[in-house]
Amino acid sequence: MVSFLLTYRAADDNTVARLLDDALTARFGSGSVVRDDPGVGLSAAERRRRLSDSAALIVVIEPRLPGESAVLPGISRRTIAAALTQQVPVIPVLVDNAELQRGTRLPEALRPLVQQHYRRVHRTSAPADIAYLVDDLATSFAPETAPAGPAIPLILSVEPVRWFMPPPSHGPAAAIVYATRQGDLEVADGGRQTAWRHPGFVARYATRYEVDTSDHSVVVDLRLPTSGGAYHFEASIAVGFRVTDPARIVRRAITDAAVLVREFLLDTCRPITSRYAIDDVVRAEAAIRRRLGPDTSALDGITLDLRSVRLSLDERVGRYVREREVKRVQNDLRELRELRPERARQAHFREEADTVTSAELEFYRDVIANDNRVPMLIDEAYVSTDRAIPTFTGPTTSSFPDVTPAPERLLVARAPTQVPAGQDLSVEVRLVSEGRSLPPDAVTAPMRHFLVADAGTPVTVTVHAPAGLHAEGPLQQTVLVLPDDDPDPIRFGFGARTPGLHRIDVTAWAGGTFLGEVSVEVSVADGGPFRDGQPKTAPMGAPRARPGEVTMEVRFDGSRYTFQLRSDAALFAPVVESVTNTPNAAVENAIRELQQLAGGGSRYSATMAREVIRSAGIQLWSELVPADVRDQFWEVGGDMSAFTIATDHDVVPWELLYPLSAQRDAGFLVEQVPVVRRTYGQRRNATVGLRNPRFVVPTKAPTGAHEEIATIRAILGAADSEPITRADELLALINSGALGATHFACHNTFSADGSFIDMDGGRFKPILLAEASIRKLLAETGPLVFINACRSAGVAPTYTRMLGWAQQFMSSGAGAFVGTLWAVRSDSSARFATAFYRSLADGATLGAAALAARIEQQDDPLDPTWLAYTVYGDPFATAAV
Predict the structure, then answer these.
(1) CA distances in angstroms from 342 to 337, 346, 350, 369, listed in the order given
(2) Less CB within 10 Å around the terminal CB: N or C of the chain?
(3) Domains and CATH numbers, the chain
(4) Whole-model pTM above 0.70?
């Protein structure tokens, strides 16, 4: 039985304490509350015994009466000091406007009390506040009693073995287990015919079981305790599982997997979260991810893998965190005035306290702690606990020149360059602050400031390797990056199975936000030597997850697709699907029909044309996106602010996706949120260069090309100049590294052999950008490249990867690329370009500008041009003009 030591003076009129006493007794049973009445003297031994038998000490603190001088009136200081010494959780319950004294004004033995998480109970809402507190105490200290949800039966049928038995009824998704007459269990070989009509069979076996071995997924909602037990985390954990030991399921008589999975998650997660305070929700979530995934966990014949985990705070807890934040700042300011009155008189108080962010509050505290001049402070007169102070999710837009920048960091990967076939190898990945030790042969690169939240920022590192390297462990690991420390190195193990040259890609992510990428190559040879390699490094952007940003990674190795959805709301495991046929033919058929619509060659009515386009998007969604990824999309889609498709396999027109379920239909994905792409090897650019614009208009240009150029010149404020018509002139400008924003108004010829633009002096092809790609010649200017032509975003196969305009320009350092996936109308394409440039030049983000241009093009239902455009870059990048 759970018991609590409740300290208050029973002889006084303490209404709240008495209500709490009654509520605890009603919830946990008679004898669950031990009262510590300071009016009754206790020996030290008896006090220690009571505390050791209690789950927690609950201290009810009433407001001080006028003239009352006691620091903690009406409670036992000895009991609190003993609880703190014995490490018994102490939960202060503040009534109405009662406050904990500052630590400097408490006896030294009681000073840790102010660090405890308190609860506040108002007399006007005491029953509701107390009920909420008792629920949290049950979450932290009592056994779980919540229902497990719908049952998931595992033993589908039980039949005695007899002559002329009917065959099993549940098909290949079930395993057959036989119980012998001696009590043993045997799993039937699914590939062999069972001779159950044979007399020896009936004599040997007594019972036949059918056990469900299909894949299942379930989302388990839990309330998990925080340290101290005063509050709780709301947890939503999605897991997939399947039976891998059918005999064990029968032996343990496990009929409901939902109960088993829930109990496992509770037993695993409760000890983890109980180590973290309520304002450490990010670190608690990362700790659960490290414990549960991406490794699979085996429990009683079931293999379980983590799909996602999210911890959150409910409204009451969020209000408490904000209240505590405000009180902390007020105490800082009060101490500043008491210790440095002359500085306080010189301080300028901010008048618009409503807009204060947590980042600014941290800045003020740092300034106070460092005894610097105070440029801005918040007077408690302007700060109210009713005002919402937002959670710190990234750097503010304010600039504080006195603040020392955080150290820059690098993503570093190291692997052997040569390995004998059959031998194991390791890829070591590190997130290293600039200036800290690295091997002497490490290559470094400048990078943006690495900003993290005070509590740390979870960064997920993923490795992708070809089938010739067999993974010996998880391919994804999450580490907590702290402001002043580097996480331990991460190891990924592989077995070298197939001779050849294998590339391993390493990427780093904060939620759905891409941070950095680096690749290493391993040569595997029969009987070859083992040779270590030098570290490969890449700059990382600020490791913070931008709220609502979702990325879908798509990788294809010739026989398998690997999908992975990333977001700040959940971390999902990769989903692998084997394919017998590549989607090229189906994609070409869909594009051919869309081109007929764009060219006016279709006999469909406006209504039917829309349905034809819509059906193509629905089919793409249902056939190419795995069911698990579709479910994950609906899980995170409600708060989505941008969607990025990360892939090198660009034959699929992902912009045509039309997410649809039995309950949800919000239109094409590109109608709902900003949608962009990123290609592997692409830099993360916060800005897109619109400076020094140039225009490429070959001699054989589309109708209206010069009018299109004139309109874009006016939007960008560009000076008149002759357009580029020669291929050698364009290539020289690119290789000079001085290329500014470049707009192509041209024809693009696409075939199975690749793309080219017919210009004076020869064909301009993507392969001509090879030097720019290797030397990153466009990195300094980071220009926008817009090829407004027919199917300029198409790709063609090369020796090792898909090669096209987008891949070549982005790997060369372009800030963004815009192209088309199929032939488009000249007038419609000019209107799309005009709307896009206008939005981007007016300050819209890259993703928002693409969304605005698409929406503006939907007035003609017979014209699918608005779906034909694909945009590469950072969805939140803005124009540099």
Answers:
(1) 8, 7, 18, 16
(2) N
(3) 4-141 (3.40.50.10140), 146-305 (3.30.479.30), 314-404 (no CATH), 409-545 (2.60.40.10), 581-676 (no CATH), 679-880 (3.40.50.1460)
(4) no
